[in-house]
Design a protein that fits this description.
This protein is mainly β. It is 0% helix and 42% strand. Strands 20, 22, 23, 26, 27 and 28 form a 6-stranded mixed β-sheet that branches. Strands 29, 30, 33, 34, 35 and 37 form a 6-stranded mixed β-sheet that branches. Strands 41, 42, 43, 45, 46 and 47 form a 6-stranded antiparallel β-sheet that branches. A hairpin with a 2-residue loop joins strand 26 and strand 27. The radius of gyration is 47 Å and the shape is rod-shaped. The termini are far apart. The mean pLDDT is 94. Pfam families: TIG (PF01833). This is IPT/TIG domain-containing protein.
């Protein structure tokens, strides 16, 4: 408390509280606060709890000696701040904090101004919530200079504009947002905020007093690429846990508020293998059925017994877990197919439900339960089992999986009139529709195709070499019709022709003849049909067309010459 010295004359010898007393207006200063009283000098202090404000004239400073009052001298007792109540750290707050309580005396009864001044900056007024002579509550303004963290707080009394003592304060770091607010380990996160502090400098960004933490994991120096009062750029550090982590920025040993960041598991689709379906958890016969087996990461091609309508396949596929460990029961997936463009640029759609209308759909094997945990691994790179799946969505992973492990799934899918000769790619995605972080291999296949329409149609005499021109005649018991044939995959391919008098339409109803089958392994082969007079009439003009057959699949018709069908 400040000592006040009054100099003058005829003050007497001692304070008695009645006839010899120091007054401020009508208030008498207790004798206990008077340390010196002589005829020419009085030294006293104003009690801290007094609510007298002082003023001029009779409201000012008066000395009463032997019952006689002196003239009043201008004298003011200033507002006094005695304490500051803040949310967490003493005498410190963040921009926008509410309910900051200022305790003291002589604030006045009318609302006035509370100012915050940061070092070297202009004063900024706070929003007043409540005001009384001994207590004020305020909201901290948001316009404080971000680059300065220390300063003072004071208030002004409205009745006489007297200003209180300065109270030292600190503005704490504040995180306003994280961008992005979720990601995998290594994701660069922008920490946006105010008063995050100046850059501690390279080599000092990950210390006990200056650091960034995700949960309990402190980012390394190498994780932090930049630091300013309003933006810190940091990678999600290794060692964090999956799920919600609180991010806190510490500068000069002062912590910011916390902001939530969701650390995600990363997934990479890795290896696959096609299997023939079996009514069990473990398929045993790699595609195609029989002794021939396609290797891992091998497409089902046209010569690999490609699937046709209603065929059921099994797809073993694994996914690499990265970033952070995958907790048991925390993730489910979907299987998708696509047929336009390459596997990296196709348009994807979900594999349909069991008995759904999609070209690829789930399938219900009688014995294994959909979503059952696998009992064994088939892929050479797998080291964690997942589930057997007959339809989307998959069950959640049954076991915890560590970073770097490959978790294996088994999908059952059925061809539901998928267009013939079409290439399809498959991929797994998260059940919420989010694509995996990356894809190393895409399972793919081509559906069973129709044989190609025949080419190089020709008609010959019985010797098979003498051609008969379009519109020509033949004096022979036999006419040989030839064509070049190509199919899909491998197997036996058959030539067929339809022949009718020129006056009749070729409509596929009658007069259709099939020649002998020819073994097809990928190279063009010649097919022929021999016609005799028992099959066609003498002295009649005919026209004909041809197609090919493989099993129950037929090519389109192709007409010979310029004759209309």
């Amino acid at each position: 408390t400040q000592q006040i010295t009054i100099s003058g004359s005829n003050f007497g010898t001692a304070c008695d509280g009645t006839n010899n007393v120091v007054k401020i207006g009508t208030y008498s200063v207790p004798c206990a606060n008077v340390s010196t009283w002589t005829a020419t000098s009085i030294v006293f202090t104003v009690p801290s709890a007094t609510n007298v404000y002082g003023g001029t004239g009779s409201n000012g400073l008066i000395v009463r000696a032997s019952g006689i009052d002196s003239g009043g001298s201008s004298f003011y007792v200033y507002p006094s701040i005695s304490s500051l109540v803040t949310p967490s750290v003493a005498n410190a707050f963040r921009e926008g904090d509410t309910g900051i309580q200022i305790n003291g005396s002589r604030f006045g009864s009318a609302t006035s101004t509370v100012s915050i001044t940061l070092s070297g900056q202009s004063a900024v007024s706070s929003t007043i919530t409540t005001w009384s002579d001994t207590q004020i509550t305020i909201t901290i303004p948001t316009a404080l200079a971000d680059t300065i963290d220390t300063g003072t707080l004071n208030l002004s009394r409205v009745s006489d504009s007297k200003t209180s003592n300065n109270w030292n304060i600190r503005v704490l770091p504040q995180i306003t947002s994280l961008s992005p607010s979720s990601g995998i380990v290594g994701t660069v996160v922008n920490i946006n905020g105010t008063h995050l502090g100046s850059d501690p400098g390279v080599g000092y960004r990950s210390t006990a007093t200056d650091n960034i933490k995700f949960g309990s994991t402190q980012a390394l120096e190498s994780d932090i690429s930049s630091w300013s009062a309003t933006l810190i750029q940091v990678k999600v550090p290794s060692g964090v846990s999956a799920g919600t982590n609180t991010v806190v920025a510490r500068r000069s040993n002062y912590d910011s508020n916390s902001s939530n960041f969701s650390v995600l598991v990363s997934f990479t689709q890795k290896d696959f293998r096609w299997y023939a379906n079996a009514d069990s958890l473990q398929p045993t016969d790699p595609w195609p059925t029989g002794a021939t087996n396609l290797a891992e990461n091998t497409t089902i091609g046209g010569f690999d017994s490609p699937p046709a309508n209603a065929d059921v396949l099994r797809l073993r596929i694994n996914v690499t877990v990265g970033s952070v460990n995958l907790a048991a029961g925390s993730q489910s997936f979907k299987l998708q197919s696509g047929s336009s463009g390459s596997c990296t640029s196709t348009s994807w759609s979900d594999v349909d439900i069991i008995n759904g209308s999609g070209v690829w759909r789930g399938y219900d094997n009688a014995t294994p339960a959909d979503g059952a945990a696998l009992t064994g691994l088939l892929l050479s790179t797998s080291n964690a089992t997942a589930t057997y799946e007959e339809a989307n969505n998959s069950a959640n992973n049954p076991y915890a999986v560590s970073v770097g492990q490959n978790i294996e799934y088994d999908w059952v899918i059925q061809d539901n009139n998928a267009p013939s000769g079409t290439t399809y790619c498959f991929r797994m995605i998260k059940s919420d529709g989010t694509a995996l972080n990356s894809y190393t291999n895409y399972p793919s296949l081509i559906t069973k195709g129709l044989p190609n329409a025949p080419t190089s149609l020709g008609q010959y005499l019985a010797n098979g070499t003498t051609a008969v021109a379009v519109g020509g005649t033949a004096s022979t018991q036999t006419i040989i019709l030839k064509m070049t044939m190509t199919g899909v995959g491998s197997g036996t391919i058959y030539p067929q022709i339809e022949v009718k008098p020129i006056t009749q339409t070729l409509d596929g109803s009658t007069n259709i003849f099939e020649g002998s089958g020819v073994s097809y392994t990928g190279s063009p082969v010649t097919g022929q049909v021999n016609l005799t007079f028992g099959q066609i009439s003498n002295h009649t003009a005919f026209h004909w067309r041809a197609k090919t057959r493989m099993n129950t699949d037929y090519s389109a018709w192709v007409s010979f010459g310029n004759n209309a069908d």
